Amino acid sequence: MRFTLALGKGAIAASFMSMTSESSLHSEQPSEDDDRILAGYRLSIDNIDAALIHMLAERFRITQAVGQYKATASLPPADPDREQRQIGRLRKLAEEAHLDPEFSEKFLRFIIDEVIRHHEQARDDAS
Fold it and tell me: What single DSSP character describes residue 22?
């Protein structure tokens, strides 16, 4: 079996064959094949979660540098116009990807709020 999650212009593909041994299967599951299917789905989810964490870590490394730059250049920590443009752009991408745009906006807003908090801290540390 092969599962593929398309992300924008690239794709993350997770392939799996027999992922579990009989001893690791749960007795509540209807059959051994169902357990292997579920294990494959879960492995794909785990891989995607790991990729998300690494992407967020890289994003925050970059936004930390932006915050330092803004602090030294005396720029405000927040840029509401850019934030609105980003939210609009990512809502459109979410719709194209068949992801709930409300969810994507909430997720992005959470990230933006955290970035602004970091930028405010950088500003305060620079003063």
Answer: G
